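call fold(seq) -> C-alpha cells
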Amino acid sequence: MSIRPLAVIALIATAPTWACAPLALYDETTSVVTANFYDRAYRGLPWKERVALHRQGLTCESTNAAVALRLNALLAELETSHTGFYTPADLSYWALKNIFARKIDAHPFPQIGLWATCSADDGCFARNVYEGSIAEKAGLRVGDQLLKLDDAPFDPLGFRVGGAQRLLVRSRAGETPRSLAVRARRESAQRALLRATRKAMRLYERGGRKIGYVHLWAGTHPEIQATFVSQLKSLAGRVDAIVVDLRDGFGGASPDFVAPLYEDERLRKTPVVALVNDGTRSGKEWVAYRLKRDKRATLLGETTAGYFIGGRIYDIRGGDFALYLAVEKFDPEDVLDPIEGVGVAPDVESPGCRRFCEGRDPQLEDALARLAKPSASGGPSREAIEQ
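ret:
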C-alpha cells in the first residue's frame, strides 16, 4: 500500500474547490439545493451539517459516479419526490433533460424503446417495452432479464446507432438465454413515449363485449395530450367499456387529459377501469385521484408513487449533470387528500408482474375479466367490477 507524503495530503486538504473538480461539483450542486429547495427548514434536517458530513466522503480523486452516489444519499435524506442528481450514465438524465426542454425531440440518445431497471443484487430487467418499438419488434417482453449487450454486461445506455447488436435475455429464471438482434435509433424519450401511446390503443373482445384500451405513457407534451384525447373520443359509441392505463412512464398530465370521459355523452355512460401502479406519478396521480374521487373510473392495481410536488431541472456544470429538485408545493384546489409521499390507493388491489412475466400482464387481464362480468343491466356495473 502506498503512503502519500504529508505535504501532498496537506495540499489536497487546503486546495480551493475550483482546483478539485469532484468537490467543486458537490459544492455547486448542494449550493443550488440550499438556495432553491421548497422547504426552507429542509424537512427538519440539520442541513448544513448533513452537507458537510457527506462531503467528507469525497476527495479530489473521486469519480463522477462517486460524487453522484454521495449527492443522492444526501438528497434521499430529504424524503421528497422529484429530487435527485443524474449523470449522462442515467436513463433519467436523458428523459428529464428532454421533458424540461419543452421540445419533443430534444436530447436524443441511442435506444430501442426499452426502460430497464438494474440493481447490484439482481441485475437488469425490462420494466417497460414500448409499443411499436425496436425492442418489441425484436421479441423483448416486460419482465425479461437483460444479461448482455454484445459481449459486455447489459448497460441501459450501451446501445449504439449504426449496426446490429446482440441482446442476451431470458424470460424465465434458470432457462437458457436467447439472443435478440436489435438496431438502435437515436431518439428522444418523449418521441418514444408518443409512439408508444399511439401504438398502444387496441380493442379486446371479452364475454361478448368490446373493450377499448388506451395507455397514457406521459403527460409531458401537448402532442401526447392531443393523441390521447383523440383516442378516447374515437372510442365513443364503439365500445362497451374502456381500460385507461396510467402505469409507468412519466407524469405531467392533468384531468384535462380525460375530459372526454366526462364531457362526451356516450363516454359518460361507458364503464372505465384505470390501471395504476407504483410507476404512476405526478400529474398522472392527479388524473387517478380525480377519476376515483368522482367515481368516474374504478382504479385497479397498486398504490401510486406519491410523487406530487413541483420540481424543476437545474443544469450543473453547464449541463454535464442534472439536478432534479422539488421547488414548490403542488396544491390543486380539487385535491383534498395528501398525495405526496402517500400516493393514491386503488379501489381494487391487483398485483402486477415485474420479473419473468413471459408476456403476461395480470393487472390488465384482471381489468378485462371484471369488465366482462355480467350484471342485471346487461352491461358491466361498477359493483360487478369491484367485486
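The two ends are 67 Å apart (CA to CA).
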